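Structure (tokenized):
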């Protein structure tokens, strides 16, 4: 019995070695054809068409999957020959890569009885696993989990494709034909959200302008075209300008969107638990939740947007000029006047974009390697708590995926300098601002909603009045060394 099993195992091994040898011989034979001039890809598509249908294995796009396709792939990989017109078709084994294994797998199917290529095969069709693209730019690579601009967790194969599609849309420069404008602040999401990686914050040069009119009593009035003016407009159109009567202007800086998916998944109850609008505990802090459409607002400097889906819909139109179907979000704009057919972004594209944003990794805390530096950071954290910063900058909230360490309660607080006039929003006092998350603060300078504070210390001195006045005064009373430790702690977040 034992000898019989050994004989069977030996027979299997010999068959495997024979198949492997035959494949190598076939691949080598194909490579010897390099002295034959390579014909250009024989695309079956008319110039300018965007058909995404293809036959798996048909690398040269001639409508068949045969040995010439293996030769075509090898020529592209090793002999600087033409690139495949449809990379997904050339990816014979559908592993999301274009390499020698694709030529080998196709040859194995053609001559050794190996399994046929994955769908679409043996008939043309749409790629069920779109990754390399077909007559379109290939999807961007998937960054390392947890890296700046990378996903927040391991993704399934289908999720990774959706995430990469979303990244491609986030990074895509929008053309006029795709619906840019008519008024816009950037041609892409990446145009504003760029530091320290795609999805991050924006600099002063990307600030947008908000405006209003204030009478002698200080009462603010919104003016026609307000409260914001877009930075650019489509060719042939006048750029939006502030109308006559404006005497209150402020700028708004682009906040980071890294980690916002975790914030989106914090239950309303976790935010409401910290609200104390009447200051019932007498600590001078009276944070309140801003309710928007029955949900707690948590995004934007004034907490005016309740969900990440709404945040994306709002920004698509107000920042880029992209329309989507109105039923996808109450913040959606379904039509505009730029000439491109509406909606300008399809539902699958919008959902991919939202999925990408929902799974952008949060900023990672930097752990000092030097024991002395780690001690200073620890002491800075203790001082941060002792002077009351954590009263608004709550170190963590319980989210659906565990603790969300954003250092924010996501409530509105009266903290703005009363000597500075602010543009109001309906239902929000001009001096009220949502507590800004502190995670990743080392990469988001300058600070405050308008970027007017060049340093963290400046942000404390210039942006903490009203409810935050006692904390600001406590910070001012610290020694120079103690202030430095608090800043070092914040720079580690």
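Design, position by position:
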């Amino acid at each position: 019995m034992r000898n019989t099993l050994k004989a069977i195992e030996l027979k299997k091994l010999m068959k495997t070695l024979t198949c492997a040898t035959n494949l190598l011989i076939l691949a080598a034979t194909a490579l010897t054809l390099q002295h034959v001039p390579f014909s250009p890809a024989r695309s079956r598509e008319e110039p300018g068409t965007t058909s995404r249908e293809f036959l798996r294995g048909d690398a040269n796009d001639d409508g068949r999957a045969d040995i010439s396709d293996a030769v075509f792939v090898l020529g592209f990989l090793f002999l600087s020959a033409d690139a495949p017109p449809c990379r997904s078709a050339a990816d014979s084994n559908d592993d999301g890569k274009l390499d020698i294994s694709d030529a080998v797998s196709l040859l194995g199917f053609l001559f050794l009885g190996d399994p046929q290529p994955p769908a679409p095969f043996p008939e043309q069709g749409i790629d069920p696993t779109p990754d390399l693209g077909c007559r379109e730019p290939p999807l961007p690579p998937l960054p390392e989990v947890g890296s700046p601009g990378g996903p927040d967790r391991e993704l399934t194969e289908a999720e990774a494709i959706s995430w990469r599609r979303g990244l491609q849309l986030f990074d895509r420069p929008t053309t006029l034909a795709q619906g840019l404008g008519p008024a816009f602040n950037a041609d892409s999401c990446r145009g504003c959200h760029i530091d320290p990686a795609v999805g991050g914050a924006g600099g002063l040069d990307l600030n947008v302008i908000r405006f209003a009119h204030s009478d002698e009593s200080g009462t603010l009035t919104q003016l026609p075209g307000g409260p914001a003016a877009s930075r650019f407009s489509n060719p042939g159109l006048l750029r939006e300008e502030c109308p006559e009567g404006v005497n209150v202007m402020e700028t708004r800086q682009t906040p980071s969107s890294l980690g916002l998916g975790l914030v989106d998944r914090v239950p309303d109850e976790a935010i409401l638990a910290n609200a104390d609008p009447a200051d019932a505990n007498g600590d001078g802090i009276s944070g309140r939740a801003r309710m928007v459409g029955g949900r707690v607002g948590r995004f934007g400097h004034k907490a005016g947007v309740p969900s990440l889906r709404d945040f994306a819909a709002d920004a698509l139109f107000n920042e880029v000029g992209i329309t989507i179907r109105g039923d996808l979000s109450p913040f959606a704009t379904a039509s505009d006047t730029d000439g491109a057919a509406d909606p300008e972004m399809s539902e699958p594209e919008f959902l991919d974009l939202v999925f990408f944003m929902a799974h952008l990794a949060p900023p990672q805390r930097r752990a000092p390697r030097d024991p002395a530096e780690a001690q200073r950071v620890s002491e800075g954290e203790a001082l941060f708590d002792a002077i009351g910063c954590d009263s608004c900058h709550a170190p963590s909230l319980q989210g659906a995926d565990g603790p969300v360490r954003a250092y924010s309660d996501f409530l509105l607080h009266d903290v703005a300098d009363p000597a500075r006039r602010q543009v109001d929003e309906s239902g929000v006092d001009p001096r009220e601002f949502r507590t800004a998350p502190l995670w990743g603060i080392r990469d988001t300078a300058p600070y405050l909603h308008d970027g007017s504070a060049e340093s963290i210390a400046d942000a404390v001195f210039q942006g903490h009045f009203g409810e935050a006045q006692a904390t600001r005064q406590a910070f001012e009373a610290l020694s120079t060394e103690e202030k430095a430790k608090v800043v070092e702690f914040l720079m580690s977040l």
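Reviewer-requested clarification: The two ends are 66 Å apart (CA to CA). Residues 244 and 324 are 33 Å apart (CA to CA).
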